[in-house]
Design brief:
heterodimer; A: 545 residues; mainly alpha; two-stranded antiparallel sheet; 6 strands; B: 90 residues; Helix Hairpins; 77% helix
Chain lengths: 545, 90
């Protein structure tokens, strides 16, 4: 047995030798586990292209998000000490007013989301209380602010020229205020402040400020152009809703209606607001026009309407005449979905001759104006992507301004110059136009209230500029007019350098937030003081502080 | 109330008082529970440490002031509701 095999073996090996065993490849560990043969190499060209594009975009987003949060947290930390101050129960906290309105060509949601994302965190960190004046259409903020100022003037004891009785207000807000005075609940006696979001809202704010302090207390009896007031509600909403600008149909729908109404009511000398209150919104159908016409033909309902409603605040339901159920239903259908806007009491050309209200304070509430970059349009996609990836600058700039408002440590008149966003449409765009900012002769303009955030106008959708027949006053399109008497009373918040330096030194971490490692240690009970393990607590750290 | 006779009224009063007392005790015991749990954590001695004492004081103070503030706001809304005859904020 021992010497027999060698002969065939010799022959076999001679045969086999030309075809050697394939050398085992790959990682021996994987091979022993029976796994396929991994070879490390670059992916194919197409995969490389795909991965590098998606990877770099994701990284850009994450980088921006990281720095955006840090920037915001920095300003939150700067103001968070205010939240820890104790307030006696019988005193109300400071209450700022926020002015929001829908950007041109878009809905109010854009402005609200901007507020939630950039402004609210800083306000919440300082435990601020706030009121919001919102505008869904152009002019709403103007009307809201002017009405607020007029209300305050009446409360301060001014009498309307017409000698109209000032009856005690029935609004909840006033009743509550009355009760607070009786119960000894004090209001905040420091500076309150206003916060304006975006150039378009700023334009309306300035207009409303002038209308409130320079305008009369009672609504104007005759309007210069009745058609302007008449169409206030309708075509503007139509324009707002049709983003692409195909607005021909709604305007032509509403115009005949109001003309008919005007014709029927023409003999009775309509106050300007009547036409407005009864004008349907953009969805006016021929049927409702018919209904109004027949109501006017009866004589009584329309004329009754004319007699009863003499204040501009009268909405459609308060001015509703007694009518049959069928007509009532039609009236309900045509009730404007959006509340009616109060037409302006003054015009910008009448400012210089108008008397200033005797109760005007020497200093009006200081304001902070925040950028609201809002760019629409498919062709603007590259710019929009650029801005999307650079929102950290916006968060930083906004946080700085809001912190200045919250701290309220430095309030200055408007005309002195300071650092600020200037006329950049977006805070991140600084490298593009930043160089000529200081040398530019016209740059002085942007430290004035007329020029603040002027660059945002370049981003506006064309509906802001479009003219149409019978339009009301267009606050966005008109340039800002400021009367010297109001200008010297206007103030703005500013952030002193020391506080800004303090914030810049902060690393932007939330002091309350623990790192991942610290929370793991707590959960596992590895802390030095031998505290209870986190998982024995139930919820970790929720109620320990 | 007017529809009830004297006996029933007495019983009603009884129930009402008991309910009020129960409500008060619930609030009170919740306050004690909260403040005890968040402040007292050292059981090696039978006295309250000064740190614990201060914490309990602050805790009770905070609860009281918060309740007072809520009570004020509630009364305001109630008054407004009474005078205007409609639910505020609607």
């Amino acid at each position: 047995m021992a010497d027999k095999p060698p002969v065939p073996v010799e022959s076999v090996t001679k045969d086999v030798r030309p075809t050697p065993q394939p050398k085992p490849t790959g990682n021996p560990v994987f091979r022993m586990m029976g796994m396929p043969n991994f070879r490390f190499k670059l992916p194919s060209r197409n995969w490389l292209i795909f991965l590098s594009i998606t990877g770099s975009f994701t990284t850009a987003i994450l980088y921006d998000r990281y720095h955006r949060k840090r920037a915001q947290q920095r300003w939150c930390n700067l103001v968070s000490h205010i939240a820890h101050e104790s307030l006696p129960p019988s005193q109300m906290p400071r209450r700022i007013t926020i002015f929001l309105s829908a950007p041109p060509g878009d809905s109010i949601r854009a402005a609200r989301e901007h507020f939630h994302e950039y402004v609210k965190p800083v306000l919440a960190a300082a435990a601020m209380d706030w009121d919001v004046i919102e505008g869904r259409r152009e002019g709403d903020v103007r009307a809201g602010l002017a009405e607020k100022i007029r209300k305050r003037r009446r409360k301060d004891g001014e009498e309307p020229l017409t000698g109209e009785e000032t009856k005690p207000s029935e609004e909840t807000e006033d009743l509550v205020q009355e009760w607070r005075v009786k119960a000894g609940v004090q209001d905040w006696e420091g500076v309150q402040g206003d916060l304006v979001l975006g150039r378009h809202t700023w334009k309306e704010y300035v207009r409303g400020l002038h209308e409130g302090w320079l305008g009369p207390l009672d609504p104007p009896l005759e309007t210069a152009e009745p058609s302007a007031a008449k169409n206030e509600a309708s075509p503007l909403t139509a324009e707002q809703q049709s983003s692409a600008g195909d607005d021909g149909s709604p305007t032509s729908d509403t115009l005949p209606t109001s003309d008919l109404l005007n014709a029927t009511a023409g003999s009775a000398k309509p106050p300007p607001d009547i036409a407005e209150t009864s004008t349907p919104t953009d969805h006016a159908s021929p049927l409702t026009a018919e209904q109004q016409l027949s109501a006017g033909d009866d004589g009584s309902p329309i004329s009754e309407m004319l007699q009863t409603s003499d204040s501009p605040t009268a909405t459609a339901d308060s001015a509703e005449p007694p009518i049959e159920p069928a007509q009532a239903e039609a009236q309900k259908v045509e009730k404007p979905k959006t509340p009616v806007q109060i037409p302006p009491y003054t015009s910008t050309s009448a400012y210089s001759s108008a008397p200033l209200a005797p109760t005007t304070p020497m200093v009006l509430p200081p304001t902070t104006i925040l950028p609201l970059p809002h760019l629409l349009g498919f062709l603007n996609t590259p710019i929009r992507i650029y801005r999307f990836l650079n929102r950290r600058h916006l968060a930083d700039e906004t946080g700085r301004e809001v912190a200045a408002l919250v701290l309220a440590s430095y309030i200055r008149p408007w005309d002195s110059r300071s650092e600020g966003t200037g006329d950049l449409p977006f805070p991140g765009d600084q490298n593009s136009t930043g160089d000529q900012r200081s040398e530019d002769g016209a740059s002085q303009e942007r430290w004035k209230p007329e020029g603040v955030l002027e660059g945002e106008e370049r981003d506006w959708h064309k509906v802001a500029w479009k003219r149409y027949q019978g339009e009301p006053e267009r606050v966005w399109r008109n340039s800002i007019v400021i009367e010297p008497r109001i200008r010297e009373r206007m103030r703005r918040f500013d952030l002193p350098g020391a506080e800004e330096d303090q914030a810049r030194k902060d690393d932007g971490r939330d002091p309350a937030a623990k790192g991942l490692w610290a929370s793991v240690k707590q959960t596992m009970g590895w802390e030095e003081d031998g505290a209870v393990k986190g998982w024995e607590h139930g919820s970790v750290g929720a109620e320990s502080e | 109330m007017e529809a009830l006779n004297a006996n029933e009224q007495r019983e009603f009063q009884n129930i009402y008082e008991r309910k009020q007392l129960k409500d008060f005790m619930t609030v009170y015991s919740r306050l004690i529970q909260n403040c005890f749990e968040s402040c007292v954590n050292d059981f090696t001695s039978k006295t309250l440490a000064s740190r614990e004492q201060g914490c309990v004081m602050r805790c009770v103070d905070k609860h009281q002031k918060a309740a007072e503030r809520v009570q004020l706001r509630f009364t305001e809304q109630n008054v407004a509701l009474m005078q205007s005859g409609q639910i505020p904020g609607q």
